[in-house]
Each structure stands twice: as structure tokens, then as C-alpha cells.
């Protein structure tokens, strides 16, 4: 799989090299075309100067032109050469009328390239041609004037075209060398970049095949994008490992908690089946125990469903709730559960919060039920509710068995139960406080637990107060 990822990179590298070669060729074409246009301007300018000189001094003017590659011929009405530049005739130039055979001046693709300067303007009667005379290419300008007289200015193309070919070879060679150098650098860079990615891929593949979430990808020494990627992946693996462990622990502990009441109910039913003639009071006691365990089982299943909703990311629908009424109802229901404990309520009147009424009632009953279970007879449970600065604060305080500081730090973990709590109530599930914590979080509040062994526990939670802003939201 990592090897296959090189193909797009190699393809892009080839496309880039091709684009560089095409760019070099186009640059050379622009240079060659504009150099040809410069030559045409030179021919036009020379023809104008020679025509003026011929009108002034006659054919003698051509004999005094400097000996350069540029050749000038003057044809008479009969088509014969009347005069030419230079001290002696050029054997490659025919003494007859100008050549008529034309060859292509520029390649077809070069003719369509844009010009970097204005195209040369020809005067009336002037014609530009590219000729081949005895195997040599010439650029020729013919100009008819003064009746049937013709002036021809020629320039050899051999040296210029040879220089252009050398320039083209040099440009293409340099471009190819640059492509090779770029390929080597890109290959080394790609290998260095892909090596960590291959390691990430192999590690991810091992994790997928073995389902071992304890493995981690290698950390990179540099704080770059790859370093951030490896850190993010390791953090994701940490979260996944924790989630899987929590799920396994949840399933194991839930199975354990469900097994106990099911076993008790099954045993009682087997007793009823095995001894159909048992005494009525014994039968009533067995049925009573079975009903108690079924009630416990129902509460446990309800708690497990609540935890499952929490794990599924369930969001509560919050609205305007008369919190003072909810607290009074919860305390009234808790009065039915108490056993010689003293339960008192102190609260501000007419407090409203933004929340879910049923969940808030469940929250208060969880805290009050725990306080009653772990507070001995004659103990005190106090509920105090105050509203201030946009928050409603509820404090549930008891004089029960209490917990150690280490147990307080674990009190919101699923199925966790303090040692003294197990002694006073062996049938608890350890899901009440985690559910209470979730309910408070869903309402945007905070919860805090303070406890001391032998002196009691205090649970404090805050809820956002209902305001006019909530009503308009």
C-alpha cells in the first residue's frame, strides 16, 4: 500500500518535467521569432537607406557600402543586376531577377506565438521572403520602385540559425539536468516523508488485525505536521483503549450485578416448585424476598438504561422548571424511606431553573436515598437550597458513615462503592452517583462531594437559574 502511493508522486514529477521542457521550448521559440523580426526591421531600414542613396548618388552608392553579411542588389528594368554591394560579385547570387521560390520562414507552431514587440511594417511594393540559394538560406526583402527597377536586400540565415540551435540545445540540456536534480531531491524528500507514514500505516494495520489497542505509533522528534499527526493518533488510541476497557468493565460489572438478584429469584422459585406443600408463612417469606429482588433488579436495569443513554450522548430537553416544588416533592417522597433519621429542608421560595423536571427529581432522590441508607438511626439529613447570582445551589448533608479522601476521588466511577457503604448496604449497584453526576452536567452545572469517615458526607451541586434570557432563547 505505501509503495502504490509513490505512483501519483512520480506522475506529478513527470508532468512537471514535461511542463518545464515545454516552457523552455516556448521561451526559445519566442526568442527565435523576435530575433527574426529584428532581422526584418534591419532589412527594411537598410532598404530605405539604400533607396535614398541610389536616388542621390546612383549605382556608385552601392560600391561604397561596408562589407558585411548584408547583400544589396539593384535590378534594372530587364531583370539584370545593375549594381551590387561589395567590391566583387558574390558567386552565390544570380545576376538574374530576384528568386521566386519561397520556403517556410518559421515553424508552424512558432508563427502562432505572441510577439514581444510590434510586427515590422512594410512599405508599399516591398515583400519579405525566405529563399534557398545553392543550399544556403537567406532572408530577402524586395522593393519595387521607379518603374520596373527592383532593390533586393539579403541576409544569410546560417549563422543565426546555428546560434539558435546551440541555444536550444543548451536550454533543453539545462532543463533536463534541472529535472534530474529535482527528481533526486524529490525522491529523497519523498522517502523521508513517506517513511514515517509507512510506520503509521503498518502500526494501524497491526492494530486493526490484532485488535490490540495498547500499541502506539512512533513519536517523531520534530514538532511538525507528522509529529502532530502521531500525537493525535496516539491520543485517539488512548481514548479508544480507555473506552473499550470501560465498556468491558461495564459489561462485566453489570453482569455481576444482574446475576445476584436473578440467582436469588431463581432459587426462591425453585424452592416453591420443589416444596409445594410448604407452610403459608414460609411461602409468603419466599415471595416477599423474590419481590424485593425483582424491585432491586428493576431499579438496576433502569440505572443501566440511563448509563447507556449517557454513553450514547443523549441530550436532555431543558425548559422552565419550578425547582422549589421539585425539591419539596423529593423530600416528601424521601420521608417515606427514612428509618428513625431526621430529615429537614431549608430553601429559598419560588426558585426556577432551566432543566428537566423528571431528571432533577431523580437526581434529588438519588442523593437523599444514599444519605438515608448510610446514615444510622437518629442521624440528621439536611437539604438546603439557595439562589444567588444566576445559580441555584443545593446542599445535601448527612451525618452518615462517610468516606476516605481516596474513595471521594472515585465516587463518580461506575459500580464503585466505598468500603463502609458495602458494609451498611450490600445490595447497592454503585450507579447512583455516576448518574447524578451526568444529570448535573447535562444541566450545565457542577457537583462536589466532601466527606469524612464517621462524620458524614456533603454533596453540593449548582444549576443555572431560569432568567428572561432563557425564555427568549
UniProtKB/TrEMBL annotation:
Against SUPFAM superfamilies, the record matches this protein to:
ATPase domain of HSP90 chaperone/DNA topoisomerase II/histidine kinase (SSF55874), HAMP domain-like (SSF158472), Homodimeric domain of signal transducing histidine kinase (SSF47384)
Pfam annotation, one family: HATPase_c
* Main location as per UniProt: membrane
Q: Where is the Histidine kinase domain?
A: 253-467
Reactions accelerated catalytically: ATP + protein L-histidine = ADP + protein N-phospho-L-histidine
EC category: transferase
Where is each HAMP domain found? 191-245
One GO MF annotation is:
phosphorelay sensor kinase activity
CDD domains (alphabetical):
HAMP, HATPase, HisKA
Q: Which UniProt keywords apply?
A: Kinase, Membrane, Phosphoprotein, Transferase, Transmembrane, Transmembrane helix, Two-component regulatory system
Where does the chain cross the membrane? 166-186
Question: What EC number(s) would the UniProt record show?
Answer: 2.7.13.3
Task: Provide the protein's localization.
Answer: Membrane
Can you name a GO cellular component term? plasma membrane
Q: What is this protein called?
A: histidine kinase
Query: What is the organism field in this record?
Result: Deinococcus cellulosilyticus (strain DSM 18568 / NBRC 106333 / KACC 11606 / 5516J-15)
Amino acid at each position: 500500500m505505501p509503495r502504490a502511493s509513490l505512483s501519483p508522486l512520480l506522475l506529478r514529477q513527470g508532468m512537471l518535467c514535461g511542463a518545464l521542457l515545454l516552457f523552455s521550448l516556448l521561451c526559445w521559440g519566442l526568442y527565435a521569432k523576435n530575433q527574426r523580426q529584428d532581422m526584418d526591421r534591419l532589412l527594411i531600414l537598410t532598404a530605405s537607406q539604400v533607396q535614398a542613396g541610389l536616388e542621390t548618388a546612383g549605382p556608385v552608392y552601392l560600391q561604397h557600402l561596408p562589407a558585411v553579411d548584408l547583400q544589396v542588389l539593384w535590378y534594372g528594368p530587364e531583370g539584370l543586376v545593375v549594381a551590387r554591394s561589395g567590391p566583387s560579385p558574390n558567386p552565390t547570387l544570380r545576376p538574374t531577377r530576384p528568386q521566386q521560390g519561397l520556403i517556410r520562414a518559421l515553424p508552424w507552431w512558432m508563427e502562432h506565438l505572441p510577439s514581444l514587440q510590434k510586427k515590422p511594417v512594410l512599405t508599399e511594393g516591398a515583400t519579405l521572403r525566405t529563399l534557398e540559394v545553392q543550399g544556403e538560406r537567406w532572408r530577402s526583402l524586395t522593393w519595387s520602385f521607379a518603374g520596373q527597377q527592383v532593390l533586393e536586400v539579403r541576409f544569410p540565415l546560417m549563422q543565426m540559425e546555428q546560434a539558435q540551435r546551440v541555444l536550444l540545445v543548451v536550454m533543453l540540456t539545462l532543463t533536463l539536468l534541472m529535472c534530474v536534480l529535482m527528481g533526486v531531491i524529490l525522491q529523497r524528500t519523498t522517502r523521508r516523508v513517506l517513511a514515517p507514514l509507512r510506520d503509521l500505516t503498518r502500526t494501524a494495520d497491526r492494530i486493526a488485525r490484532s485488535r490490540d489497542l495498547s500499541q502506539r505509533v512512533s513519536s517523531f522528534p520534530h514538532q511538525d505536521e507528522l509529529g502532530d499527526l502521531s500525537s493525535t493518533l496516539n491520543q485517539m488510541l488512548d481514548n479508544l483503549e480507555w473506552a473499550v476497557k470501560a465498556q468491558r468493565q461495564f459489561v462485566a460489572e453489570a453482569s455481576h450485578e444482574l446475576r445476584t438478584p436473578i440467582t436469588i429469584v431463581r432459587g426462591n422459585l425453585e424452592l416453591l416448585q420443589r416444596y409445594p406443600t410448604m407452610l403459608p408463612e414460609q411461602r409468603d417469606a419466599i415471595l416477599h424476598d423474590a419481590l424485593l429482588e425483582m424491585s432491586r433488579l428493576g431499579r438496576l436495569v433502569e440505572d443501566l438504561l440511563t448509563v447507556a443513554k449517557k454513553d450514547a450522548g443523549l441530550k436532555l430537553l431543558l425548559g422552565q422548571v419550578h425547582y422549589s416544588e421539585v425539591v419539596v416533592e423529593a423530600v416528601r417522597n424521601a420521608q417515606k424511606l427514612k428509618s428513625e433519621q431526621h430529615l429537614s429542608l431549608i430553601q429559598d421560595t419560588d426558585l426556577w431553573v432551566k432543566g428537566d423536571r423528571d431528571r432533577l427529581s431523580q437526581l434529588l432522590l438519588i442523593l437523599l436515598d444514599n444519605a438515608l441508607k448510610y446514615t444510622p438511626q437518629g442521624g440528621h439529613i439536611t437539604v438546603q437550597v439557595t439562589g444567588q447570582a444566576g445559580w441555584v445551589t443545593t446542599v445535601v448533608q448527612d451525618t452518615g458513615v462517610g468516606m476516605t479522601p481516596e474513595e471521594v476521588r472515585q465516587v463518580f466511577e461506575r459500580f464503585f462503592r466505598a468500603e463502609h457503604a458495602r458494609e451498611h448496604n450490600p445490595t447497592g449497584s454503585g450507579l447512583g452517583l455516576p448518574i447524578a453526576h451526568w444529570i448535573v452536567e447535562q444541566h450545565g452545572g457542577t457537583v462536589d462531594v466532601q466527606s469524612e469517615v464517621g462524620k458524614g458526607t456533603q454533596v453540593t451541586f449548582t444549576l443555572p437559574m431560569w432568567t428572561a434570557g432563557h425564555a427568549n432563547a
